[in-house]
Amino acid sequence: MLRSCTAGLRSIWALRGRREGAPRLSMDLQPARRLFSTEKVIHKDWALPNPSWSKDLKLLFDQFMKKCEDGSWERLPSYKRRSTQESEDFKTYFLGSALQTQSLWKKAQLFTRGFEDGLGFEYVIFKNNDEKRTVCLFQGGPYLQGVPGLLHGGAMATMIDIALGSCTGGAVMTANLNINFKRPVPLCSVVVINSQLDKLEGRKLFLSCNVRSVDEKTLYSEATGLFIKLDPEKSST
Amino acid sequence: MLRSCTAGLRSIWALRGRREGAPRLSMDLQPARRLFSTEKVIHKDWALPNPSWSKDLKLLFDQFMKKCEDGSWERLPSYKRRSTQESEDFKTYFLGSALQTQSLWKKAQLFTRGFEDGLGFEYVIFKNNDEKRTVCLFQGGPYLQGVPGLLHGGAMATMIDIALGSCTGGAVMTANLNINFKRPVPLCSVVVINSQLDKLEGRKLFLSCNVRSVDEKTLYSEATGLFIKLDPEKSST
């Protein structure tokens, strides 16, 4: 079991783990495709514009898509689920003999892609591999409310976790998140999360980010993160 | 506008802000009630068992309900929305003249109550006022997945934010969250978040919590939080 798990993680490692819930690498803009003949799920890429996106979000998306043309930036696709094999590899790695087969698990999907269009997390991440940094464009919908009229701090923390993780370029786990909330984010507004890899020490990755308004005048949050690279030679159990 | 806002926040203050999305104080177990004749929404209390709750969660719930009988503990109800007036007060306080009236806002609801029963955040918080601490019983559903088979770090951060906030006893905003993720949480399992108020300095509240398995043997996370009491005499804009 460990050997197959290790092989699976090596495969995940090779994919550089940079696409959330990603079944396979894909740089095209096809909204959906079928991966394996045994899979019934058609994987839709959710990091593309939909009618709920505001003018600000669409405009920024177009600007970054232009930056992708010379290859310096790339858009990271985003899926609700990983492929079945990858999912099993991860479960075995983390849960080992304690692996459960609850029926609820069959419904499992990525946290940030669980809401209908426009109601929850609308976002896309662009990555600059040479500069080891990413830019996440995020519009938090009405189902992400905390104090009335404002984005929930937990929703912001979630996007910060994802944005920092997108800089890691590998299969990783979050070990520490330290977030300073400077100003509350109005619900349904667009923010820009700039993340970067600051330092690499063995399997430890030290990252930081800031969250700003589209015009960059308002600093909403600053955060640091410590992520640990998973060791494909070892199970965590 | 400021005066009415101030009056509104005083009222919120008086309610001690301890119930998420709470329209008014309520200690009974009525699942739903109508507050104002002008309101069309019937406020359902979501911090009560539903068929998706696991045996572990129900058992812990029953244990804490027993502790409530002598008044040392209380169950905190939880609603998707605050009353219309409170919502308007908050929006005015935070957003002032920049208050927007986007149609999406009409759908606004508490982040952690946006999923169908069992798919997202299933939780209930019990509070011990004398000891300035709370216990949050949390079952993270299949729509909160991060790495396959595991709870998303952002979902855990969200619950930590809410659990710490439940100790504050006032209208507050999160200023800092510092979370150490020790071990990943299996999806659909139940965890217990013990939170406490460590120190109060003026408007600053310093809090801490830990997240453990039901049998207390596994420490999943530890966190500290700094929350700031809102000043009802001032608008934030």
From TrEMBL, chains A, B:
Alphabetized InterPro entries for the sequence: HotDog_dom_sf, THEM4/THEM5_acyl-CoA_thioest, Thioestr_dom
Recorded superkingdom: Eukaryota
Catalyzed chemical reaction(s): decanoyl-CoA + H2O = decanoate + CoA + H(+); (9Z)-octadecenoyl-CoA + H2O = (9Z)-octadecenoate + CoA + H(+); hexadecanoyl-CoA + H2O = hexadecanoate + CoA + H(+); dodecanoyl-CoA + H2O = dodecanoate + CoA + H(+)
Pfam families (alphabetical): 4HBT
E.C. numbers: 3.1.2.2
Topology within the bilayer: Peripheral membrane protein
Keyword Kinase: no
Keywords: Apoptosis, Cell membrane, Cell projection, Cytoplasm, Fatty acid metabolism, Hydrolase, Lipid metabolism, Membrane, Mitochondrion, Mitochondrion inner membrane, Transit peptide
Location(s) in or outside the cell: Cell projection, Ruffle membrane; Cytoplasm; Mitochondrion inner membrane; Mitochondrion intermembrane space
Record domain Thioesterase: where: 149-218
UniProt key word Hydrolase: yes
Main location (coarse class): membrane
Family: Belongs to the THEM4/THEM5 thioesterase family.
Protein name: Acyl-coenzyme A thioesterase THEM4
Organism whose genome encodes this protein: Bos taurus
